[in-house]
């Protein structure tokens, strides 16, 4: 049985493993790592993501072909597809509103009315303002307006449709990192793959064409030849600046 690692040990242990052993993973343990993924920080707590945990061997084989038959996909015991669901922002905003109402209902009314109104306004007004898009035209108008206001005071400027896509991808990538470190903690290995035919991936998984694939993560136990080289990183003093 693998001994659990500290966070620093898990970070050090995690590598992009390209070849996995022919050895089964405990599906429930992988699922628990995905629970940890769901606890990742994310923009406005909208959680515009889905995690597709692939254990069916036939589906894994099909996805491996869509991943250009990379060894990390072909030899994986399981796969996890991290899906960006920006299209669900209304549903996720509503879930936040319901949650906030339940929280504020548990406090004395005179203590929470102002906070409740501010929080609900965020999800009822600001989030729709940021995420509503009419073929990208509203994003352009928002961008122009916010940059004019920005001449006079600090303001958030990443308000175009493409910017909101990036926001959702960043949130989903944070969840994927949580997952991979959680896997490393218990001695399981992963490989994050960007190389795939995402149209075919969505077709295999019967996903709406509007969603986007953030990454596909191969999961397994590392083969002795699964790590191709020693770890290379740019020298830290070249990337670190204290200001």
Descriptors for this entry?
243 residues; alpha+beta; NADH Oxidase; 2 domains; 10 helices
Shape: globular
Cα(first) to Cα(last) distance is: 45 Å
CA-atom Rg in angstroms? 21 Å
Oligomer: single chain
CATH class of the largest domain: Alpha Beta
Task: Return the structural class.
Answer: alpha+beta
What does this protein look like?
With 243 residues, the chain is of the alpha+beta class. It folds into two domains: 7-87 and 164-239, NADH Oxidase (3-Layer(aba) Sandwich); 89-159, no CATH class. The chain is 50% helix and 11% strand. The protein contains ten helices and four strands. The protein has a four-stranded antiparallel beta sheet with strand order 1-2-4-3, with helices on both faces. Helix 3 (57-66) runs antiparallel to helix 9. The longest helix has 25 residues, at 161-185. The radius of gyration is 21 Å and the shape is globular. The relative contact order is 0.23.
Quick summary of this structure?
The protein has 243 residues and is of the alpha+beta class.
Helix-strand blueprint:
Elements: H1 7-13, H2 27-37, E1 49-54, H3 57-66, H4 71-74, E2 78-84, H5 89-105, H6 109-131, H7 137-149, H8 161-185, E3 189-193, H9 198-204, E4 212-220, H10 236-239
Antiparallel strand pairs: 1-2, 2-4, 3-4
Helix pairs in contact: 1-8, 2-8, 3-9, 5-6
């Amino acid at each position: 049985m693998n001994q659990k690692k500290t966070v620093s040990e898990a970070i050090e242990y995690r590598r992009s493993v390209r070849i996995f052993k022919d050895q089964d993973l405990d599906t429930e343990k992988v699922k628990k790592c995905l629970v940890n993924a769901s606890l990742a920080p994310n923009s406005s707590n909208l959680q515009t993501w889905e995690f597709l945990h692939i254990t069916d061997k036939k589906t894994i084989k099909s996805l491996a072909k869509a991943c250009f038959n990379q060894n990390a996909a072909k030899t994986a015991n399981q796969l996890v597809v991290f899906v960006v669901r920006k299209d669900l922002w209304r549903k996720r905003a509503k879930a936040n509103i319901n949650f906030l109402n339940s929280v504020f209902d548990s406090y004395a009314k005179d203590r929470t009315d102002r906070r409740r109104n501010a929080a609900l306004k965020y999800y009822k007004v600001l989030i729709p303002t940021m995420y509503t898009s009419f073929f990208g035209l509203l994003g352009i108008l928002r961008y122009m307006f916010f940059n004019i206001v920005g001449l006079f005071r600090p303001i958030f400027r990443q308000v175009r449709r493409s910017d909101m896509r990036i926001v959702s991808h960043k949130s989903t990538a944070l969840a994927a990192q949580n997952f991979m470190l959680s896997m490393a903690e218990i001695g399981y290995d992963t490989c994050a793959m960007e190389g795939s035919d995402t149209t075919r991936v969505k077709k295999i998984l019967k996903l709406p064409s509007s969603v986007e694939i953030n990454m596909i993560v191969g999961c397994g136990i590392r083969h002795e030849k699964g790590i191709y080289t020693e770890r290379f990183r740019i020298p830290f003093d070249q990337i670190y600046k204290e200001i």
